[in-house]
Amino acid sequence: MSFNSFQFLLFFGTVLIIYFIIPHRFKWLWLLFASYFFYLKIKLIYIFIILFVTIITYYAGVWIGKCESKRIRKLILSTDLLICIGLLFIFKYYNFFINFIGDLLENYNISFKIKPLNLSIPIGISFYIFKSLSYTIDVYRNNKVKENHFGKLALYIAFFPQLLAGPIERANNFLPQVSKRFNFDEENIKNGVRQMLWGLFQKIVIADNLALLVDAVYNNPIKYNGLTLICATIFFSFQIYCDFSGYSDIAIGSAKLLGFTTITNFDRPYFATSIQDFWRRWHISLSTWLRDYIYFPLGGSRVSIIRYCFNIVIVMLICGIWHGANLTFIIWGLLHGFYLIVFRLTQNKINRLYKIISIEEKIKLRKGLEILITFSLVSMGWIFFRANNLSEAFYILLKIFKVMELNLSINELIRIYFLGELRFETFVSIFSIGFLLLVERKTSFIEWVSNKSDLARWLCYYLIITAILLFGNFGQKQFIYFQF
Fold first, then answer.
1. Is residue 400 part of a domain?
2. How far apart are CA 453 and CA 446, in angstroms?
3. Residues 165, 429: contact at Cβ < 8 Å?
4. How far apart are CA 445 and CA 294, in angstroms?
5. 365 plus 250 within the same structural domain
6. Same structural domain for residues 201 and 303?
7. In the chain, what percentage of residues exceed pLDDT 70?
8. Predicted confidence (pLDDT) at residue 359 exceeds the cutoff of 90
9. CA dist., res. 209 & res. 429, Å (int)
10. Separation of alpha carbons 165 and 6, rounded Å
């Protein structure tokens, strides 16, 4: 049941109406039922997996809270982490490692008899496992986070707006809101609808039209030259942003209609002035999770430069692996780790260079240059994220840096995107990206539209709805992050 489907709108409308009507003491129970029904519609067995994780997490929290011995508390925490991470490994990474080891040994003519498991990856498992892990660790660190009510903890882990692709909400933000009495707030309802509408526009009008342009090239990159590959890569940069940010906006907006305030997941990431700044703005719920539960415990940045480099490599390696069991994701994560390390090592030298070439005082010029460089580096990383395999990723990089075939590339680009079957989607995508950048130049869409006059605001809503109806790609293409 995808967020961009009529089925979800019908489901959510029913959930919302009943939620408004029923007494407060039954609201959490209704949301829990709706969340499990929502997951049940995908696949029955997924219910048992998430229920098992919830039971393990609940009892780990209870036992850690009751136990006074630090050694036993640590043992309980370690057991919980081992079970949850082990479950994630079996479903998501076991086959990858078995195939990788098998292929490696085959090169040396060594037989390897362990076979992959015939298991499908439960949708959302990476997200709700990370939620459950953060809860148990927080209970270990601070007993005040502990939830004694099994049903409310189950709702935290399975809350349907966040279940399939986040945001990875923290228990200390979500659980107090479950018990808080729901008050019908007209402004909250307006903001929730606005955010859902903007998310739908990003997904259906921008991301799904861009997907056609990206897939046409990336599904067979060997056919194309550098300029076409550059354009397809830039298109993918906006596709993945609008796809995931669109999902997050629908999730946050729907949660807001139910009275829940959720962590912001994106903050105009393509206006970041460095890779470090990019990770403060991109998938914020994941980047802060990695920071709080891996980076800081490793020592953070207040360590020697060698230890800092080690910490960054570990964190970004985990970030890459979290996204998928594929070498392309691992390289993508390590590449961002390399970016962060280089930025740390060269920051002072770059600042001195700016002073020498007199850019230091030209704030707008410097900021524009930094945004352009950061976007280019991030887009280069997306090549590994989108490519079908490493060989294709390196082929694309090689072709991009070949400038010898410029005339051929221009002709090919015009033929593919501006004269071929995809010309309509190309123009829609370019205008949509322009509108997106115009809106997010200084603030988020919600703040931008909220500051407009009533007439301008309603005109904006009308244009967005019209764009969705006229230019939306209603093929119900799944959100990219559902695979993670």
1. yes
2. 13
3. no
4. 32
5. yes
6. yes
7. 94
8. no
9. 6
10. 19
- Domain assignment of residue 294, yes or no: yes
CA–CA distance, 96 with 104 (Å, rounded to integer):
12
Question: Which burial class, exposed, middle or buried, applies to 451 when counting CB atoms under 10 A from its CB (0-12, 13-18, 19+)?
Answer: exposed
What is the rounded CA–CA span in Å between residue 172 and residue 157?
Answer: 13
Roughly how many angstroms between the first and final C-alpha of the chain, as a whole number?
Answer: 16
Answer whether residue 403 shows pLDDT above 60.
no
- Kindly report the number of other CB atoms within 10 A of residue 183's CB atom: 8
* pLDDT level of residue 184 (50, 70, 90 thresholds): confident
Q: In whole angstroms, how far apart are CA 455 and each of 187, 189, 432, 459, 461?
A: 17, 19, 22, 6, 10
Residue 204 carries which DSSP code?
I
Taking each helix axis from N to C end, the angle separating 125-141 and 171-179, rounded to the nearest 10 degrees, works out to 90
What pLDDT was estimated at residue 358?
66
- Is the pTM of the predicted complex or chain greater than 0.85? yes
pLDDT confidence band for 360 (50 / 70 / 90):
low
Q: What gap in Å lies between CA 360 and CA 358, rounded to an integer?
A: 6
Q: Domain tally for the chain?
A: 2
Residue 223 DSSP symbol: G
Backbone angles phi, psi at 51, to 5 degrees: -65, -40
Closest by CA to 136, choosing from 57, 190, 44, 211, is: 57
Q: What's the whole-number average pLDDT of the chain?
A: 89
DSSP-assigned letters across all residues of 339-367: HHHHHHHHHHHHHHHHHHTT-TT-HHHHH
**Nearest residue to 256 (alpha-carbon basis) of 5, 8, 12:** 12
Q: How would you class 77 by CB atoms within 10 Å of its CB: exposed for 0-12, middle for 13-18, buried for 19 or more?
A: buried
- Please identify every residue annotated as catalytic: 323
User: Is 1 inside any structural domain?
Assistant: no
Q: Are 195 and 249 contacting, i.e. CB atoms less than 8 angstroms apart?
A: yes
- DSSP annotation of 443 reads S
Task: Domain of residue 398: give its range.
Answer: 188-483
Distance, CA of 178 to CA of 450 (rounded, Å): 28
| Rg of the chain (C-alpha set) | 24
